[in-house]
Amino acid sequence: MFELNSSTVNSDNTNIRDFLASYIKHWYLFAIGIFLCVLAAFLYLRYKAIPQYQITSTVLIKDKDKGSSTNSEQSLGDLGLVKPSTNIEDQIGIITSSYFMEKVMEELALNVAYSIEGQVKDIDIYWRNIPFYLLSSRASQPTSSLPLIISPIDSLSFNLKSTTASTEVQAGTYQFGDTIHTGKKFFQVIRNPHYTKDFIDVTPIQTRFTNIEDMAINYSGQLVVESVNTTGSLLSLSLLDAIPQRGKDILQTLIELYAEESVKYQNQLAIGTIEIIDERLKLLTGEIASVENDVATYKQQNDLTNISSDAAVYLQSAQLASRQLDEYQTQIDILNSIESYLRQNGDERLVPSSLNIQDPTLSGLISQFNSKQLERKTLVRTTPADNPLVVSLDRTLTDLRIDILENLRNIKDGLLIAQKNVKANSYRTQAKIAKVPTAERALQTINRDQGIKQDLYLYLLQKREEEALSLEAPISNTRIVDPPKAGRFPVSPNKTSIYLGALIFGLFIPFSFVFVKDQLNNKISAIGDIEKFTNAPLLGQISHNTDRKNLIVHKNNTSAIAELFRLMRFNLSYLTIDKANKVLLVTSSNAGEGKTFFTINFAASLALSGKKVVALSFDLRAPKLLQRLNLKESIGITDYIMDHKWTSKDLLVKVPNYENLDVIGSGPIPADPGELMLHERIGSLIEELKQHYDHIIIDSAPIGKVADAFAFVPNIDATVFIVRQNFSLKKDVKILNDIYSNNKLKNMMVVLNDTEANSNYGYGDQK
Predict the structure, then answer these.
(1) What is the DSSP letter of 47?
(2) Which of 254, 283, 510, 741 can bridge 33 by disulfide, Cβ–Cβ 3.0-4.6 Å?
(3) The pTM of the whole model exceeds 0.85
(4) Is 55 helix (H, G, I), strand (E, B) or coil?
(5) Among 717, 609, 622, which residue's Cα sits nearest to residue 669?
(6) Containing domain of residue 589, as a range?
(7) Within a domain: 288
(8) pLDDT of 675-705, one tens digit each?
């Protein structure tokens, strides 16, 4: 905890009070500023400001492909085709584009402004609420904003005239639907089918062509489109317009055009996609046919029908050939063994007939041979070898052996030829079997290319059907959740904000004026300025002297200024408690700040309290004390210093009507007053006066110009520094603070002179 210094609190309160007082005294400026600004705000709201109503709507931007089994955007994106973006930020950019707003302006024929003449300002109206509207394409619209006045006569005709002396439009009576030329441009006045009221006594309506691009930019700038939430596709649209119905129509038309343009763009994209797919299908048809021809050619060139079945046939043929070769080799081996048997064994033994001999002729010959051989063996047992029967049998056996050997050679030659052919066929089959992997790989490559092209062909056919279906049944991706609605009360201008702003501005201007004035003011304007630049105590203040008299304080005078001197008399006693205050030096920084006026009246105030007081005119350079009291100059201080024959009693001049008040004049103006102020006789004079007076008040020269006042330092008890409001400079108070801080003059106190009446200090004028 700490203890707050009460002097600091009082100082802060005083500073705040001074700050407020410096502005409160200019209250009339604040009153005038507030009055003028509030009046300007009232006139602006009444005659200049146009009430603006807020029109709001909510729409849902949905993705029609979302939820379907196939994602068209993704699939067509894979093909390099661009689908409409459903990014919500992109849609906001599209809606707020000036392109859409220009189309809205054209759709609603807002390239013409309509108004009714008012007493102070013209009143804008919407063409749907009047009997007609002007129709003109952008190409034929008059380029100049020539104001026209149209007055309907009846449901068929109207009167037209120009508000200027221009000859572009010929004034006169026209029929609704007539083409009116303005130079090379033209327009029509069309009867409004929405207008059902009577055409008689319709107020003349002013019309003026406007630049539709500028209007579109203006409305686009006012249009606000925001996402209702960060995860959804709901958009909030808001627009400000002076005419609620027009604003609702603009917002409604904008949403409808956006939906139409979205469908139109989707249809254009679908048509373009179908065209691209058709072109691609034509190319794929040719490519597929070419691949199929390649397959057929390759199969023909390689004798292939189906690689798997052909390979099986080849393997089967190879196996069959192997078995045949084995069989042929067996037959050949059997024949070779029979031939070898016949050649080695002669005619004595039988030829083996149990061998697998497939040739019936050979088998028959062998059977005959064996039969004859058995017959001979039987005959030889009983008959000699030269027996004709034996000889005949030998010849027969020899012939049969020859026939068998001949038959063996023929059969073996046939088998060798057959074996050779089978081997050749086997070699060809093996070659085909060896070519199967290569053929299979090549055919797979061709088939893969064929399959890819067929799949792409089917895929494109599917996409074409999807795009054709979307083209046949177009569905907008925009749905109005909340139709456009206008508020019941205008949102702009905000009267409360404008009046509050006017009030603040009305206070700010005078405040700025006073603040700048105070900042540029280098003169003391209040006691706060004194307290800011010095810590010297304040003896009091003196209000402005309206009586133009030099001696204000006298008996029975209760005026404000007299009371202020009495207050300073009390303050002097309070500030000099336990200190001497007999000799009081009065000085200032410059001439004209009221030293002499203070000296006269403060001395009179002390004298009226019963004190014996003497006032000394020690401003030897420009003495004014006796002159201000209307007293004649006599022997003065200069005489006393220069001639020792004079005593203090010789210098005294009695002030009429003041029993206890005497004054001493300065005497002749010396040539060297600065040197004279250092004379020892000055100390002697003050010591003599101390013996007879309670207070000695010295009116000295300005301390900011000359150093005369510092000569009294050994002889004075206290110092009063006079500062004049709106006259003394702030830099002079800094000099005062230097003197006080360094104690160059004893017990210095400050008096603020010539203050304004009704000040926060002391009394003001009382009436």
Answers:
(1) I
(2) 510
(3) no
(4) strand
(5) 622
(6) 527-755
(7) no
(8) 777 888 888 888 888 888 989 999 888 887 7
